[in-house]
Amino acid sequence: MKNKIRQELAQKRKNLSKDEVLEKSDKIKKRLFETDEFKQASNIVFYVSYDNEVYTHKMIKECITSKKNVVVPMCDKEERCLILSKLDSWDDLEPGSYGILEPRKEKVKEFSIDKIDLIIVPGLGFDTNGCRIGHGKGYYDNLLKNSRNALHIGLAFEAQIVKKITVDAHDLPVHMIVTEKRVIDCRNK
Fold first, then answer.
1. What pLDDT, on the 0 to 100 scale, is given for residue 1?
2. Going along 12-68, which residue ranges are E strands?
3. How confident is the model at residue 167, as a pLDDT?
4. Dihedral, 145, 148, 149, 153 alpha carbons, nearest 10
5. Which of 1, 148, 175, 181 is the most buried (most CB within 10 A)?
6. Angle between helices 18-34 and 57-64 (to 10 degrees)
């Protein structure tokens, strides 16, 4: 069942043109940056977008030049986990696991999950309760489980919001979701 939903949501995202992705991502960026939660955060984990995800490259570049610490994940396939690294310059990235941009080996600056205020979470889809469905590898579930102090915000296009996502015991919901049309606060549901 989950694989069928995954395929449908991945296809919806794939059907968006590059222009649509960029235009909607700009609206999402504006909404995200206007939230109090974002404004108050100092140490932020951003996923580095690929494959028609909500485009985070502009967000990351803008935050690098601000007073915020930008932290990006690196995939450890052997341990099936994400390692966090502070990012000082966009130019420190190169294609890594799964073709996703990650810090080059000599630019890795490991950053403790305990110091993170906010984690920007990707997903193929979300429901309004914050339940998410990803690619099924569990990397983000593990990261979220280990981040006791951080707020988790999912970024999604409105087309990725579905009525209900069935979750397993290990799946953790996000606290908020930002789309091009709204900010959904899932904490009081």
1. 66
2. 43-45
3. 81
4. 20
5. 175
6. 40
Alpha carbon 185 to its chain centroid, in Å, reads: 16
What are the residue ranges spanned by the domains of the chain?
2-185
pLDDT value of position 135 = 77
Beta bridge partners of 118: 44, 151
pTM: predicted TM-score of the whole model, two decimal places: 0.94
Contact 101, 73 (CB under 8 A): no
CA dist., res. 4 & res. 131, Å (int):
17
* Positions in the chain short of pLDDT 50: none
Q: Please choose, from the candidates 159, 164, 162, 155, the residue with its C-alpha nearest in 3D space to the C-alpha of residue 183.
A: 155
Fold annotation for 2-185: Rossmann fold (3.40.50)
Give which of 176, 171, 133, 153 is closest to 12, Cα–Cα. Answer: 133
